[in-house]
Amino acid sequence: MNRWVASVAASMVALSLIAPAQILADESERDDRLFQQLGGLGGIDLIVEELLVEISRDLRIVEQFAETNVERFRRLLVEQICDISGGPCEYSGESMELVHGGMEITEAEFNALVENLITAMDTARVPLAAQNRLLRKLAEMRSDIIHQ
Fold it and tell me: For the CA atoms of the chain, what is the radius of gyration?
């Protein structure tokens, strides 16, 4: 079993130990329709968990994640999706440009991750309209992630 698969398995076992996403003090200002369509925080957790499984199986991109702290990656991705979907979370990570700078991520690798995310959302039974809304929001970050 490679190190990435072992890390994913360990993080899944430790799900109950992972701190929840940071909650904003004033939730009333957020438009949370997409957040609710994704299944709330529990649904986003499931999507991210499924995405980690898909990444661990994908020979096209798994090596890009070889040195990744899986628990941190998982926590920040849940925060980020929760935040951009209008949920009660605030993304506490660094900018996508800073995180991905120097990684030389190709368009093919980016597209592979998107395919994995779609599979994860299908597995989590996220409605197609909600998937498209989330993908549109994430697509805004594309130019900060792809560095060829």
Answer: 15
Could you give the CA distance from residue 87 to residue 128 in angstroms, rounded to a whole number?
Answer: 19
Task: Lowest mean pLDDT of 18-27, 56-65, 105-114, name the range.
Answer: 18-27
SS (H, E, C) the chain: CCHHHHHHHHHHHCHHHCCCCCECCCHHHCCCHHHHHCCHHHHHHHHHHHHHHHHHHCCCCHHHHCCCCHHHHHHHHHHHHHHHCCCCECCCCCCHHHHHCCCCCCHHHHHHHHHHHHHHHHHCCCCHHHHHHHHHHHHCCHHHHCCC
Q: What is the pLDDT of residue 30?
A: 53
pLDDT digits (tens, 9 = 90+) for 70-107: 999 999 999 999 999 999 999 897 756 555 555 677 88
Query: How far is the first Cα of the chain from the last one, in angstroms, to the nearest whole number?
Result: 30
Residue type at 111?
Answer: N
Indicate the pTM of the whole model.
0.75
